[in-house]
Amino acid sequence: MTTIIDFPPFYTQQPNVETLSQQLQLWSQHILKVCKQRRQFQLSMSDDIWTNEKIQRTRVILLSTVICYYLLISTGLATYTDTTKESVWVYWRTLAEWAAVLYDHVDGTAQLNTPLTYYELTEGDYSHLSELNGLPTPILRSAINILVKQNKAVTIKTSNGEGVKFI
């Protein structure tokens, strides 16, 4: 079965506004699906997601920039990793969803009211029990900030760096 990624025009920016809008939506869906399958959180312009060896096609630079901009501005499913704007954090789960996963994990492992470092949450003994394993610190920090605003967490400074206590 042929998919949209095997369709050569998918890799060329479409001149028609309606067609371009549909193309950006399809690219967004493709990026989110692939990143979720790979557990890939960061996407750069040089990533292999932009290429299809099978049909010998690669996206044009402008198209990938437009796609990242579209993801960033229109849907909130990505943010730039830094001021160079050369890569983005891809939110294949929204930050609110990550916050819920985080709180459920801490509650489910009986760690409420326990000071935890960011490392313990993403790389520690219990992290393999949840989707938090390997979650980049900037995404973790954003999810924690949501919980802080909901009065479900308090950030703390520890001797090992940043930490949080869930209440």
TrEMBL record:
Keywords: Protein transport, Transport. GO terms for molecular function: protein homodimerization activity; structural molecule activity. GO terms for biological process: protein transport to vacuole involved in ubiquitin-dependent protein catabolic process via the multivesicular body sorting pathway. It comes from the Eukaryota. The keyword Protein transport applies. GO terms for cellular component: ESCRT II complex. SUPFAM superfamilies: Winged helix' DNA-binding domain. InterPro entries: ESCRT-II_cplx_Vps25-sub (IPR008570), ESCRT-II_cplx_Vps25-sub_N (IPR014041), WH-like_DNA-bd_sf (IPR036388), WH_DNA-bd_sf (IPR036390). Belongs to the VPS25 family. This is ESCRT-II complex, vps25 subunit. It comes from Wallemia mellicola (strain ATCC MYA-4683 / CBS 633.66) (Wallemia sebi (CBS 633.66)).
